[in-house]
Amino acid sequence: MEFKPVTHVLFDMDGLILNTEKLYTIAFQNVVSRFGKDYTFELKLKLMGTQAHEAAQTLIKALDLPMTVEEFITETKEQYQILFPDAELMPAILLQRKWKNLRDSYSREINKQRASKSGSAALSHRKY
C-alpha cells in the first residue's frame, strides 16, 4: 500500500489553539450564580466529554436549577458571545507538544500499516 504525503491538518481550535476552557467555566458560573449556585470543579469533571444537551441536563439536575435545558444552552451561548472574543492563544510550548504528539501518532500509525500483513493475517490487525 502506498501512502500519500500529508498536505493538510485540520485543528479543532477550541481548546487546542485557543485557550477557551476557562471561558466555558466562567460562562457556566455566570449562569448558575444567578440562582446562588456554584459551578464546582467536581461538577466540571462530570461534564467533561459530554455534548451541550447532556451537560445542561446534568448541570440543571445537579444544582436543581429552575430552568430548561434550552434556556441553559441559550444563556450559555449568550455568555460565549461576551467572553470568547477575549480568548487567548494557548502557550506556544503546549502547541509544540500537541503538534509533536500528532506527528508521532501519525508516524506510528504509518509504521503499523507498513508492517501489517495482508490476507488472513491482516484480520487480526487492531481497528481504531
UniProtKB/TrEMBL annotation:
Superkingdom field: Eukaryota
GO molecular function, one term: phosphatase activity
Stretches assigned to the MADF domain: 91-120
Organism, scientific name: Parnassius apollo (Apollo butterfly)
InterPro entries per record: HAD_2, MADF-dom
Protein's name in the database: (apollo) hypothetical protein
